[in-house]
UniProtKB/TrEMBL annotation:
Gene Ontology molecular function terms on file: orotidine-5'-phosphate decarboxylase activity
Name assigned to this protein: Orotidine 5'-phosphate decarboxylase
UniProt-listed Pfam families: OMPdecase
Gene3D superfamilies per record: Aldolase class I
Taxonomic source organism: Pseudanabaena yagii GIHE-NHR1
Complexes and interactors: Homodimer.
């Protein structure tokens, strides 16, 4: 399936809704309540609970799929897991950029020729500048650290990354100078104005994320935990333009 590499112009196709649920039943229920959503994310909780069932059901509904497994292990193990994961025919699959170049190259070799695009997760959107220094002991500012990881992903052959909307504009201009105009940026850490931030740290509104140049926005709780997910979706789409 063709992945849209242009900055977001159509929220209906470029917002990915996270199916963060503990069972296939709850996930499929939300899909069927929101037929207008074309792109869904299956993360660890749902994949561990009921992965193959959900992925089959999403395929049967002709949905695009972001399989968010955030692989991170030695190169051989990640390559083997990636080989198996491509069999699901997901559009996106995540690995952690901090696993290093050899790991990313090994995984990239496994998706070559498949319909799955690997995305490198840079710095999780839940991690704030203070935690990067005090917990992770990384003596860099967030934009510099994220840039290093994304450039490493690019040098490893990947053509997309997950980062917070705060970093996208800077990364776009950085990658232009390295011939990476078509790099795909997927941004979680998106919160409609006035909504609960929860465990996220580096957040922006949908409109701000789009203006920053994100190709796709990942949105979970503001839709999947909303009292009326259809109204929440509609409101977010309206807020994007
Ligand atoms: O890879 C991801 O999708 C991801 C990366 C990241 O840095 N931050 C992040 O929040 N995510 C995912 O994006 C979704 C965000 O959910 P909400 O915070 O509920 O909108 C969750 O499913 C996270 O697992």
């Amino acid at each position: 399936m063709k992945i849209n590499l242009n900055p977001v112009v159509d929220p209906q196709t470029q917002i990915i809704v996270a199916l963060d649920f503990p069972s296939a039943r709850e996930a499929i229920d939300l899909c069927d309540r929101l037929p207008q959503v074309s792109f869904w994310k299956v993360g660890l909780e749902l994949f561990i609970a009921d992965g193959s069932t959900v992925l089959r059901e999403l395929k049967a509904r002709n949905k695009k799929i972001f399989l968010d497994l955030k692989l991170h292990d030695i190169p051989n193990t990640v390559a083997s897991a990636t080989r198996v994961a491509t069999k699901y025919g997901a559009d996106f699959l995540t690995i952690h950029a901090s696993g290093g170049k050899a790991m990313m190259q090994a995984a990239q070799a496994e998706v070559a020729g498949s319909s799955t695009q690997l995305l490198a997760v840079s710095l999780l959107t839940s991690i704030a500048a203070e935690a990067l220094k005090s917990d992770l002991q990384v003596p860099l500012e967030v934009p510099d650290y994220v840039s290093k990881l994304v450039l490493l992903a690019q040098a490893s052959g990947l053509s997309g990354a997950v980062c917070s909307p705060h970093e996208v504009a800077n990364l776009r201009s950085l990658l232009k100078s390295t011939g990476g105009d078509e790099f795909c940026f997927v941004t979680p850490g998106v919160r409609p104005a006035g909504s609960t931030v929860g465990d996220q740290s580096r957040v922006m509104t949908p409109k701000e994320a789009i203006a920053a140049g994100a190709n796709y926005l990942v949105i979970g709780r503001p839709i999947n935990a909303a009292p009326d997910p259809a109204i929440a979706w509609e409101q977010i789409c309206q807020d994007c333009v």
